[in-house]
Task: structure prediction
Amino acid sequence: MEQSSGTPDVDRAGADSGRGPIGVREDQDAGGRRTISRRDVVRIGLGAAGAVVGAPFINVGCFQLFGWSPQEYTRRCVDLVQDSLIIDMLGLTTLNSEVRERWGPDFSNLDAAAVAEFRDSEIDVLHIARGVGGRTADEAYDRTLGFVASFNSIIANRPDVFVRIDSAEDLDTVHGSGRTGILIGIQDSAHFRTPDDVSSFHSLGQRVSQLTYNSRNMIGNGSTERVDGGISDFGVAVVEEMNRVGMAVDVSHSGDQTTLDACEVSRAPVLYTHSNARALNPGHPRCKTDEAILRMAETGGVMGITGVRNFVTGEEPTTIEHYLDHFDYVRDLIGVEQLGIGSDIDLHGYDDMPKAEYDALKANYKGSYAFRDKIDIDEIAHPKRMFDVTDGLIRRGYTDDQIRGILGGNFQRVLGEIWAGM
Result:
């Protein structure tokens, strides 16, 4: 959702000194519930944040995994999270400029606590797309070039923590590697001054490009633009080149007609990396109509559900159950094989941002975004959110295979197909 100034985002992990490490408890608690004993822990990674619990587990019942949270998870939930490839198709490293400054432009000051928080989240791949802005195509080109270069620098400087995701083979190997995959994407394609720029940025590591952000560019129209126009002739040429080189077409922020046009023009699957169903939040421009979801499904694409509060529902209170309703709705409309996750936050969410930054971010959007007091949904705006999402999907009756697909398998499949090129 957020647009940046072109400065690379640096993780805020470890910023909350009151949050402790993952906790390991022994035997039974006062309520008679079984807990993980130390002898049952197969893998323990020690860092500044403390012990990290791994899988598999011998005990049955419910387990408390995080010392800073009393939440307990079933063995099924824990095993699913730890055994699955997890891809967050909009997961940022930070939303906090103070943390960006503290960690430095190339993550040189990223400490053990921050590294542990990345790993403890169990998210294997973060699609770190941002809208970098630019008043002209040349300025957008320069700023995007800087953004991509900054992440290439981070990955090169911290190969112990991060790895760039370029191919289907990289998705096959990142899970269990101990490193977080960085999937480079941009939330606008204004930096494509000519179709030839697509292959140039592909050579630098960009693998996903959103055709528009919320406003109009030379390719098409955004979701909050005054006129709902479609894709231009220039935009068709850009999409064709993206298909050829193997760069994913994303229209999460695009207007309704541009979204439909992308599904018509693209020969490769079209992605909604971080969107919601408009049927559950009528009138919100950032949500997709049933027609758009059906057309995306016909291309073979996947839709990542976001937990941004004002996208999920216009009602209060807003809870994880409203978020899960979007999974159920899209599943019933097009099938579970075309569902994924696109959180649209960092590990801690928007509501943890410094107040001045938070207020400025809200002020940067039109009233149609319908911001309320909070942007995040509390239950899924923290480093352990994949456990809570998985727990919720279990409650909703999804099978293990279906949950593995939602957590990452579905996006893994479609990205492999797109990246093969045409």
Summary: The CA atoms of residues 263 and 298 lie 8 Å apart. Residues 4-59 have pLDDT under 50 and may be disordered. Residues 84-419 form a domain with the TIM Barrel fold (CATH 3.20.20.140).
